Amino acid sequence: MKMNGGQALIKALEMQAVEVVFGLPGGAILPVYDPLIDSPIRHVLVRHEQGAGHMAEGYAHATGRPGVAMVTSGPAATNVVTPLCDAYMDSVPLVCITGQVPTAAIGTDAFQECDTVGITRSVTKHNELVTEASQIPLAIRQAFHLATTGRPGPVLVDIPKDIVDPANPRSAMEWYWPTDEEVAASLPGYRPQVEGDPALVAAAAELLCAAERPVLYIGGGILKARAAEALRALAEMTGIPVVTTLMARGAFPDDHPLCLGMPGMHGNYTAITAMQEADLLVALGSRFDDRVTGKLDGFAPDARIVHVDIDPAELHKVRRADVAIAGDCRIVIEALVAAVAAKGGSAAQADRSTWKQRISGWQERFPLTYEQLDPGEGHVKPQFVLERLRDLSPSDTIVASGVGQHQMWTSQFWRFNHPYTWVNSGGLGTMGFSIPAAIGAKAGRPDRTVWAVDGDGCFQMTAQELVTASAERIPIKVALLNNAYLGMVRQWQEMFYEERYSEVYLSPDLPDYVKWAEAMGCVAMRVESTDEVDAAIEKANAINDRPVVIEFRTDSREKVFPMVPAGKSNSDVMVDPTQAADLDRARGGR
Amino acid sequence: MARPVSYHTLVMLVENKPGVLARVAGLFARRGFNIHSLAVAPTENPALSRITVVADTESTPVDQMVKQVDKLINVVRIDELAPEDAVEQELLMATVRAGAGDRSQILELCQIFGARVLNTGSTEIMVRLAGSPGKLDDFEDLLRPFGIVAIQRTGTVALPRLERSAATPR
Ligand SMILES: Cc1ncc(C[n+]2csc(CCOP(=O)(O)OP(=O)(O)O)c2C)c(N)n1
Ligand SMILES: [Mg+2]
């Protein structure tokens, strides 16, 4: 079948079962937007290309399918660099299509030319400049294959205008759709290893059964590998407690008796301390990130390590593993379950009664906590907002967050009981992530309630995408925790810079968030005291035909605890001031 | 140029496509891996090129370098050779000042090292030596007192040392 490269590109996306593309057209990509009119693929017109990238990420987080963003050349391509890097850090499957100036103009500093492939090389799993129309279907097939297999990640395909423009003879081509074998043969250097080495699995099973103080240290790889069920089987068979990192919230239910919650810089005391005191850490799809380990040479000093990851380069990268298994987490965990079962399953486990007692002792003594305000005070505690939001929303609500204090409180105070309900920028820590990511998640899961929890600083970075949400009828809800500060930075300045506040004040009412949200087509509410919280949330949850923004005026003095100060060991974790004296006593006694 | 205290030779087979060298070099730069020398050439298969990197393994474990490079989609294969497992070769070209009094001494040096004279001018002489990087270092040191006008070295290429077990038929 004869067609032009632009038609082939859209047809290739249809063949990949793409249901939605997030994007914004411009000169170089124009010819691709024409055949899009006749395609069943939904296009969501963003207001800034960064939004397109984060929407594609949110879509991928919530659905497990690759998100697709399409933008033009030059400034549009540079605008997607941040989400590409974000997706790279968090292993999010993404396909990004960028327009490029015509082949003959490449390298001449033509209008809106930039070296997109060069600029994005270090923030993509792979990228490619396509030079012939006939290569477009294969390039798209490869992009989806690379984005979704092995360790997932963003893949960029750069398309010069001449090969998609029907006015140019270079765009003429004969349609063909490469087979799986052809795709594999076209990528001779790409063979992700999915099966774990059985001898190593057996060695790991041995360590698991024998450990007296083990912890399952779960990272985002479990979600990427769709291994939540396998993980649950492993945890329940062995009775080993589980911590879920910021990227893994929801991979194991918070309500499960074995769940200790989040470890790391703002993790809870029990999760942090259990890892510190463990004699075995079973790292599954996690990567010993510095936000989890704290000061590395003080991290989990007595622990042996079993490490499972699809990316062999993660094994031994930060911490040497005793047993390192390259492979897909779901497949390896299933093999591990079988190996443990063969040794006798739960009956083969070492006696861990003392370990369990110590853990429940920590849980009782140092739970997450905060001090509630008197109802009359003219502010709301951010943690209280999150508790109410959690309790008044359906349990399978999808929550996206920005980056800052509000992100940590969301991760701490939400109860994640379902996988794929937490959408978050962990590795890059991108302010402005939540609103577009929530829009992408809602586009992929229209059946779910989707809340974005945002900070006032973050909101001002990407709020314009609420126009997109209104125009496209993607009714997300935004809980804006307005503490009038770049709160997380303020917290560091208060604690580590002698309260010398430098460029962190934002003002509570400039801008007027309610007017702004209304101008963008949202229902908007302002909540200024504790007793107004429930009614506002209930009202927001009842609205389903447009986006809603609730601005909560929160207490700007509030800090996130526990906290492991940067560069300190996890053993030096600071708890909420109301628990500090008790912790001192506990430390004195150890 | 002296080699790093600890180094490995990484031999990569890569797809012969635009930008592949930039991907490899960019990876080394971004991850803070140090390249001591680099050689790139086509192979017997026109679809593939070979990149040989002598990498400083002082600050980064070689295993981490190999795995990160292997993640590049266009790298088809990577082999890592420890110095004791590698036969390493390099090419040196140098133009040396060679006044009437020095010329015979330089030629003598060339003879000892097995270097060839490529070109002769009235006051300078151009020589070439292929061999192990250490041998090239020695030759370079001994040429220096005469006055090196220009020197170029290609960077090392290497192949694995062959096994010599008793069972191997001759
Ligand atoms: C794009 C970007 N710029 C700067 C930072 C550094 N940073 C981390 S948290 C934070 C403050 C965020 O403020 P806000 O959105 O109001 O959240 P809060 O901490 O007050 O809850 C800043 C500036 C960042 N993470 N991302
Ligand atoms: Mg704030």
Short description:
The complex is a heterodimer of chains A (590) and B (170). By secondary structure, chain A is an alpha/beta fold.
Which characteristics define this entry?
heterodimer, A: about 600 residues, alpha/beta, Rossmann fold, 3 domains, six-stranded parallel sheet, globular, B: about 170 residues, alpha+beta, Alpha-Beta Plaits, five-stranded antiparallel sheet, four-stranded antiparallel sheet, 4 helices, about 40% strand, binds thiamine diphosphate, binds magnesium ion
What does this entry look like structurally?
The complex is a heterodimer of chains A (590) and B (170). With 590 residues, chain A is of the alpha/beta class. Chain A folds into three domains: 2-186, Rossmann fold (3-Layer(aba) Sandwich), CATH 3.40.50; 198-365, Rossmann fold; 382-553, 3-Layer(aba) Sandwich (Rossmann fold). Chain A is 38% helix and 16% strand. In chain A, the strands form four sheets. A six-stranded parallel β-sheet of chain A has the order 3-2-4-5-7-6, with helices on both faces. A six-stranded parallel β-sheet of chain A has the order 11-10-9-12-13-14, with helices on both faces. In chain A, α3 packs parallel to α5 (81-89) and α16 crosses α17 (405-413). The termini of chain A are far apart. Chain B is an alpha+beta fold. Chain B folds into two domains: 7-81, Alpha-Beta Plaits, CATH 3.30.70.260; 87-158, ACT-like. Chain A, domain 2 (Alpha-Beta Plaits). In chain B, the strands form two sheets. In chain B, strands 5, 6, 7, 8 and 9 form a five-stranded antiparallel β-sheet that branches. Chain B has a four-stranded antiparallel β-sheet with strand order 2-3-1-4, covered by helices on one side. In chain B, a hairpin with a 3-residue loop joins β6 and β7 (124-131). Chain B is elongated. At the A-B interface, loops of A face α1, α2 and β4 of B. Bound molecules: thiamine diphosphate and magnesium ion. Thiamine diphosphate binds next to α17, α19 and α21 of chain A.
